Amino acid sequence: MTAQTPACQLLERQDSDFRDWLWVAPPRDDWWLAADRQRRVWGHDTGILNAARDAEHRVSHAVAFAEARADDAIAHAAGALLFWPKAHALGEWWLVALCHVLPAGTPIKVVGEVNGGIKRAERILKALGMVARKDDTARRCQLWSSTTRELTPDLAASADSPLAVEGQWTEGWGEFEALDMRLTSHPGLYGNAKLDLGTALLLGSLPTRGYKRALDIGAGDGVISCWLAKHGARVMAGDVSAFAVEATQRSLALNGLEGDVRLSDVFSAFEGERFEAIVANPPFHHERDIDYGPAARLIRQASDHLMPGGTLTLVANAFLPYPDLLQAAFGEFEVLADTRQFKVYRARKAR
Length: 351
Hints:
Layout: H1 6-12, E1 22-24, H2 30-33, E2 40-42, H3 46-54, E3 58-60, H4 65-69, H5 72-75, E4 80-83, H6 88-101, E5 107-113, H7 119-127, E6 133-138, E7 141-147, H8 153-158, E8 164-165, E9 168-169, E10 174-178, E11 181-185, H9 197-204, E12 213-217, H10 223-230, E13 234-239, H11 242-254, E14 260-263, E15 275-280, E16 285-286, E17 289-290, H12 293-302, E18 306-317, H13 322-330, E19 334-338, E20 342-348
Parallel strand pairs: 1-2, 1-4, 2-3, 4-5, 12-13, 12-15, 13-14, 15-18
Antiparallel strand pairs: 5-7, 6-7, 8-9, 10-11, 16-17, 18-20, 19-20
Helix pairs in contact: 6-7, 12-13
């Protein structure tokens, strides 16, 4: 089995097979998934981690440092191999997390695509007081070496980092205000600690009477779930990211609201559930690549999770080809709002 993704193709040519190393936020690639030895995998993408679990690798969704330290698959790793994400703040979070959960001096490798921001990793490593040595370059990717270190308060005080507050290292959670609600942020979550224009347009298009039973798919920071619950809906929510699930749970709690939030690859955690409404601002990127897959599955499968007469309402960038998908899945749909950048669509299941 040969590697499909550029970062894995670079790793494939290394002398080391990274035996007993922790693979951190790896991409979906059959080269490592089909390995003839068990991998230790730590990530936040439920779809990838489910694939790793199905391949009998040891996986962890841990989003808290204490939880990660208590996980044998993480704590006893011989080293850590971090796949650098598009969101640089999330890459920094992974580095800080590794320094908190692994012994000082544990080897780290950081790999990623040049167009995906791997060059930023050198600067962040050095800002954290860590070694940064370039090992290899190929397939428009770079591989860097470092080691974990103790991240002391004095370093936190001097670091220009979103993870250092008043001389202390944090776990990245923050709060912001939108639509008279308190919401939770975390590095890498869509929206970057503010209400994005598409979601604002979507929420402004929903009936204010609320729904009796609603599902928020791709919950992110929880703004849609909180808005639905605030307007009287019994809310369930799902997201493929463990960070998003935690953020949505925190956002609901901040506002004194309730909801059932689950790790879910689109509808995978909601088999047998039916809703009056499904509301979503579905992603169309996976790291740097455009990926219509999750949104296409959302539209194709929505009817199976709607009550008769139930609606799917979603917002999308105006250029995305969702009208054809909606037409094929529902037969007809309407446009509730249309700006030069976004459109809000609503489709209804036949009664």
